[in-house]
Amino acid sequence: MKLQKSSLMMVLTVVTILALSSVVFAETTIVHWQHHSPAREAMVRRFAEEFEAQNPGVKIVFESIPINDYYMKLLPAIAAGSGPDVFQLRAGDVPRYRYYEVIQELQIDHELAAEEFIPSTIDYLVDEDGKFYGLPTDVQTIVLFYNTEIFEEVGIEKTPETWDELIETALLITEREDGVMYRMGLAHGNYGPVLWSLIAQTGTEFQDENGKALFNNPQGLEGFKFAADWVVEYGVEDPDFGSRWTAFKEGELGMVMAHPAMLGSFRSSHPDLPIGIAEIPARKEGEPRTNVMTNWAYVASSGAKDAELASKWIEFLTSEEAQRAWTLETGELPARVNLLNDPVLLETEPLLAAPLASLNSAVPYPFEALSQMDAAIRAAIQKVTIAGESVESAFDWLADESEKIYRDVILEEL
C-alpha cells in the first residue's frame, strides 16, 4: 500500500518527534551512596530532587547506609564492579583509593576549588599536582560545650582560654559527696579527635612518610599526660560516670569537648538545655586554639558511567548554597571560605560563631588510618586511667602501636 505524501510526512514527523523525545527524556542515572543519619538522608534526597529538576533526564539513585555497614558494603561492591558512581569516603582514605585508581580526578576547575575551600578540609583530597579527587563534606572540628546555668551557679563569668583556666573552671564545677562524684567538671570521653587535639596543641608533628611516630617526644607526651590527668591528677572526669552525653543533657557535666554537630543531638532530646559553645582553650595564653578536624569527601568512581555528570553532582552537593543549608539542618560545618563569617548562618544560629571560628585553627586529622588510630589512643589513655599504668609506658605503647598500624593498614594496602 502506498502512502500519500502528506501521510508519509506525518509519519516521518511522528517518528522524528518520538526519536527526539527518546533523546531528551532518556534517563541517565547517578548511583550515590553515603553513610546514614536521618538529617543527612533527608538533605541529600532534597538536593537530588533539585538537581534532577535542573538537569532533565538525570536520575539520582540514592542509598543511605548505616555507618557500621558502610565500608563492609562499599568495598565488595567496588571490587565486583557494581559499586556507586558517587560515594563518600573519609578524607584520609582518599589517597589510597586514588592510588588504586578506584576513584578518578574530578572534572572541575581545580585552581578555583583550591581558592574556595578551607585548606585543612582538602588536605587529603588533592594530589601533588593540585588535582582534586574529592570535595569536602561532613566537616567537624572540636569545640567546648558548656552548661550556662552551671557556670552562673558557680560564678564563672567567662569561658576558659588556657589549659590552666580549663582545669580551674572544671574544679569549680566538680562536686562529690562522700567521695562519690555526682557532677563532673569536664570530659573528653577518650574520644580520639579530642585527645589528638590536645597533643596537637603542643606543636608536635605526628607521622613521617614512612610511618615513624614523630609525636613521640616531650611535647607529645605533655598533651597526652594532660588528657590523662583530667582523671588521675585533677579528678574532674570519672570514667565510671557513664555516658558523657547523658550527663551533659541531665546537667551532671559542666563542660564537654565534642563535635559541633552534637548541638542538634542535645537539642533534639533536651530543647531547653542551657548550652554555650566556645573554642577549645589553648595550651598557653597567646597560643593558637588548635583542634583536629575530621571530614569526609564526595568522590567519583573510576567506573562512573558519566564522569562529567558525576563531577557536576558533587559540585552541586558542595556548593555554597548547599553547604549553608547543610550546616543549618545537620550541624556539619561548611568547608567553603566564604561561609566562615556568613551572616545568614550566624543570624540563624548564633551558637555557630565558635564552631565557625574553630575552622581557622583546625588542622587535618593527622593520620590516614582514622578509626585504627582513634582506637589506639583510646586504649592508651585507658591504660593510665583504668589499668593504672604510667603515662610514659602508655605513651610509648601508643607510639609503637601507631607505627604498627601504619605498616598493617597503610603499607599493606599499598
Which characteristics define this entry?
414 residues, globular, single chain, disordered N terminus, 2 domains, D-Maltodextrin-Binding Protein, domain 2, alpha/beta, 6-stranded mixed β-sheet
SSE string:
HEHEHEHHHEEHHEEHHHEHEEHHHHEHH
Uncertain regions spanning at least 5 consecutive residues: 1-25
Mean pLDDT: 93
Number of domains: 2
- SS-derived structural category: alpha/beta
Topology-level CATH name of the largest domain: D-Maltodextrin-Binding Protein, domain 2
Name the helicity range. 40-55%
For the biggest sheet, the summary is: 6 strands, mixed
As a whole number of angstroms, the C-alpha radius of gyration is 25 Å
CATH superfamily of the largest domain: Periplasmic binding protein-like II
Number of helical segments? 18
Specify the CATH class of the largest domain: Alpha Beta
Task: Give the second-level CATH assignment, the architecture of the largest domain.
Answer: 3-Layer(aba) Sandwich
- How many distinct beta strands? 11
Q: How far is the N terminus from the C terminus?
A: 70 Å
